[in-house]
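Hi everyone,

Forwarding the result from last night's run.
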Amino acid sequence: MRSSNLKIALVIYGAIYITQGIILLIAPDRMADLYGFGAVNDQMSYLMAITGSAFIAAGVWFAMTFLDPIRNINSVRFAILWASLLLITPLYALWQGYVEADHIWFGVVLNAIFAIAFLVFYPRRR
């Protein structure tokens, strides 16, 4: 049961980041609007496209881990690290005053849910 839950979580998380990465890559202005950041300049669009590429790569990696999470345990660990960092980093940015809570709340909640799910469903040896 734990393994199938982990597989489902990995595929869903992978699909979310593939989708988000594609949007960041092809429509950075639209993504900035969705987050409430307003218009972005060309340099920021470039950084968002680079970030989108990283999100696509990570999403594919998470989704591929679905095939055999036990054999690819380091990929599961990477998913835990990824979700944890994408939970902590926006909170740090909020604390520093870089963003407002209404800009980051959805990503924080989403990554908190998946970080917890990956830790709960993590395959432990008995």
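The first helix runs from residue 2 to 26.

Cheers,
N.
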